[in-house]
Amino acid sequence: MAIIPPGSTIGILGGGQLGRMTAMAARAMGYHVHVLDPDPECAAAAVADRVVAGAFTDADAAADLAKNCDVVTLEIEQIGVDALAAALRHAPVRPSPEILRIVQDRAVQKRWLADNGFPIGDYREVHSADDLLAATRELGPLFVKACHGGYDGRSQARVSGIEDAGDAWTSLGGRHSVAEQALDLDVELSVMVARRPSGETLVYPPALNVHERQILAWSVLPADLPPDVLRQAEDIARGIALRFRLEGILAVELFYLRDGRLLVNELAPRPHNSFHETEVACSTSQFEQLVRAVCDLPLGDPHVLRPGAIFNLFGELWENGPPRFDAALALPGVRLHLYGKRGARPGRKMGHLSAIGDTPQDALNRVRAAADSLVGGARS
Predict the structure, then answer these.
(1) Positive or negative, the Cα torsion across 2, 8, 10, 11?
(2) 211 plus 328 within the same structural domain
(3) CB of 171 within 8 A of CB of 158?
(4) I need a surface site. Which of 116, 280, 311, 321 has the fewest CB within 10 A?
(5) What is the pLDDT of residue 167?
(6) Is the peptide bond prior to 95 cis by the omega test (within 30 degrees of 0)?
(7) Which of 108-122, 143-157, 206-220, 268-282 has the lowest mean pLDDT?
(8) 253 - beta bridge partners?
(9) How far is CA 61 from the centre of its chain?
(10) Closest residue by Cα to residue 196 from 91, 40, 92
(11) Which of 93, 113, 137 is the last residue of a domain?
(12) Mean of per-residue pLDDT scores for the chain
């Protein structure tokens, strides 16, 4: 495989915060960056050389992007099949359209994981309200997720009993969905794997994640769990990447159950919110690692040099005026990362805080204290 050296142009399908941070890493390494996004003033626009304004299903826009790039990668999975094919005619697309085909559809993803021997929880595919009712009777409480679309808890519904099934089906718009059995969780983990086209593969240590309202609230790296659990999580993630013949990076979300089992939740072949702390905790951030991987450069060291944690900042923080960033930044080891988005609104990710510490708990305590200081009082 020929490397794609600094000075070349990287195309990114998607110009949100993940595209923005990838573009920043690429520019630091000497690359030019073009992005495709429906919004010409997307978050990545401020740091990209060029923005192609177009829908993620727009094959002509994807071709326009790829014609001017040496390699194309992505920050969002939901890219249209025709758009991916159009880009591939002009430049390598990494990760491959075949990986995206599998990941884009939750039912296809579940089947692929099961067929390839990776551990997943019990689930049923549902095509109708009757299917969902039957799944509830068979599996008990469920989380129902539409097969296509959805992010940060959207296009999902909780079914506690048969009396909830009808409303849940309606809330999902009657779309083909997967009904997942509710599990007795201990914690949620994620593992990031990087693989370059020539085959080198490296794995970051697992991160421990906590969600609120089905959206990631905070994450800490490394996860403070028994070594055998961490090794198993890394082995599962590495196995998936190798089976995929991944070119790029892949986040593997995992459930660690109280009975000791590790199960795969979902896959994301792109930078992941739970690994933002790699910017402060590791010598190679996930964003630099993505650039290295898709350009077939030697991969960077994924080991944690010092524990790090992140805390997400949502639009509601701005409801009563600008947050007290000065107070947060006065705390040692804390950094602020804002995404350049226009229009803060409740539930919208506007940025995150990161912190380092002597231990994972120390890093987490610092970033939580910084988050508390933004509004001048302690969180409950």
Answers:
(1) negative
(2) yes
(3) no
(4) 321
(5) 86
(6) yes
(7) 143-157
(8) 190
(9) 24
(10) 92
(11) 93
(12) 94
Domain co-membership, 140 together with 238: no
316: tokens are 């509601």
Q: Does the N-terminal peptide bond of residue 6 adopt cis geometry, omega within 30 degrees of 0? A: no
Distance CA 312, CA 172 (A): 26
List the domain range (segments joined by +) for residue 154.
122-181
Query: How far apart are alpha carbons 205 and 188 in whole angstroms?
Result: 14
Residue 230 one-letter amino acid:
L
Give pLDDT tens digits for 61-87: 999 999 999 999 999 999 999 999 999
Amino acid identity at 291: V
Q: For the chain, what is the domain count?
A: 3
Pair (157, 242) in one structural domain? no
CATH number at residue 22: 3.40.50.20
Q: SS3 for 42?
A: coil
Do 318 and 228 lie in one domain? The reply is yes
Q: Identify the helix (H) or strand (E) that includes residue 131.
A: helix 129-139
Classified as helix, coil or strand, 333 is coil
Strands (E) across 222-315 are located at: 248-257, 262-268, 308-314
What sign does the CA torsion over 231, 233, 237, 240 have? positive
Do 203 and 235 lie in one domain? The reply is yes
Q: Are 105 and 175 in contact, with CB atoms under 8 Å apart? A: no
pLDDT score at 166: 84
Of 65, 60, 63, nearest in space to 48 by CA? 65
The first and second tokens of residue 206, run together, are 């697992």
Residue 349 lies in a domain: yes
User: Per the domain annotation, does 136 fall within a domain?
Assistant: yes
Question: Distance of CA 21 to CAs 1, 148, 272, 340, Å?
Answer: 26, 25, 11, 11
Residue 363 and residue 310 share a domain: yes
CA distances (Å), origin 342, targets 49, 186, 217, 318 = 20, 37, 21, 12
Report the C-alpha gap between 180 and 186 in whole angstroms: 17
**Are 17 and 60 found together in one domain?**
yes
172 and 198 inside one domain: no
Average pLDDT for residues 3-20, to the nearest whole number?
A: 98
